[in-house]
Specification:
This protein is an alpha/beta fold. The chain is built from 8 helices and 8 strands, in the order E-E-E-H-E-H-E-H-E-H-H-H-E-E-H-H. InterPro entries: AB_hydrolase_1, AB_hydrolase_fold, Hydrolase_4, MAG_DAG_Lipase.
């Protein structure tokens, strides 16, 4: 489905909803989760695994492809105005919340890489609107010892690999074969917008965050620096030694499972649910775990 922004552009919107439990009436989702994807990727394919896993855990998940990303209108891979991008997300996410009325009380943001900055800016726009946020390897600060020219070089380098292919051949093939991912060199205006928003987040947001956060970061991430995540106010930081940037899709099935266990446990706690252990997870999620392990074993033969 598509949503129309204030500039008359069609933006691709997707959703994953929890299914009915066996022999039980449909219940409202535990909470709403809104996905903020990274630079050059999109929600419908790249973040499908995230949406499906969270829906199996009982959450209603919604995503929006930014202008110039995925199946949305705009020059592919081009971010002409980061503030407009954030406003598009704010407008669409708020409309989804309104459509649920009072049936769902909790709402979360989940931002990956550049989407982490989007989530922080959404929080600034509506400080009391969100229940919490999950930041996956967020792009949220430039190192203090970097001078202007190296900063630009660093951002350009990060943009060239903002969505690294991942550790598995299957993930590398998926990204290269995904027509909705932008794979050409980054545009200069886009680099400037990312630099500008990074400076804004560092100077005006990092030390004023009052929202509960879970931050998950790979210890071997070469795209965004794990140490800067510690600067956020009162975060819960989960650092995974040896893991790379694409924690929720580019790692081995076992590593991905570990990350999602932590994410779902945190969301459950913040949503006043306590389903956190393996034994208590929904049957379909346990089946997915078994399928992941079987796929890994089969792939290693």
């Amino acid at each position: 489905e598509y949503a129309r922004n204030s500039r008359g552009m069609s933006l691709f919107a997707c959703r994953w909803l929890p299914g009915k439990k066996r022999n039980k009436d449909a219940r409202p989702p535990k909470a709403l989760v809104f996905l903020c994807h990274g630079y050059a990727v999109e929600c419908g394919v790249t973040m499908r695994g995230t949406g499906e896993r969270l829906a199996r855990a009982g959450y209603a998940v919604y995503g929006l492809d930014y202008e110039g990303h995925g199946r949305s209108d705009g020059l592919q891979g081009y971010v002409p105005d980061f503030e407009a991008l954030v406003q598009d997300c704010d407008d669409h996410f708020a409309s989804v919340v309104r459509s649920h009325g009072t049936t769902v009380r909790h709402r979360f943001l989940l931002g990956e890489s550049m989407g982490g900055a989007v989530a922080l800016l959404l929080h600034r726009a509506r400080p009391d609107f969100w229940t919490g946020a999950v930041l996956v390897a967020p792009m949220c600060k430039i190192a203090d010892d970097m001078r202007p020219h190296p900063v630009v070089v660093s951002i350009l380098r990060a943009m060239n690999s903002t969505y690294p292919p991942g550790r598995t051949q299957e993930k590398r093939d998926e990204i290269r074969g995904n027509p909705y991912c932008y794979k050409d060199k980054p545009r200069l205006k886009t680099a400037f917008e990312l630099l500008k928003v990074s400076l804004d987040v560092e100077a005006n947001i990092l030390h004023q965050v009052s929202l509960p956060f879970l931050i998950v970061h790979g210890g071997a991430d070469k795209v965004t620096d794990p140490s800067v995540s510690e600067l956020l106010y009162r975060p819960t930081l989960k650092l995974y030694p040896g893991m790379w940037h694409a924690l929720t899709s580019g790692e081995s099935p076992n590593n991905i499972w570990t990350v999602f266990q932590d994410i779902i446990a945190w969301l459950d706690h913040r949503s006043s649910h306590t389903t956190t252990s393996m034994e208590e997870l929904p049957e379909v999620e346990q089946k997915a775990r078994h399928d992941d392990q079987h796929q890994q074993q089969h792939g290693n033969k």
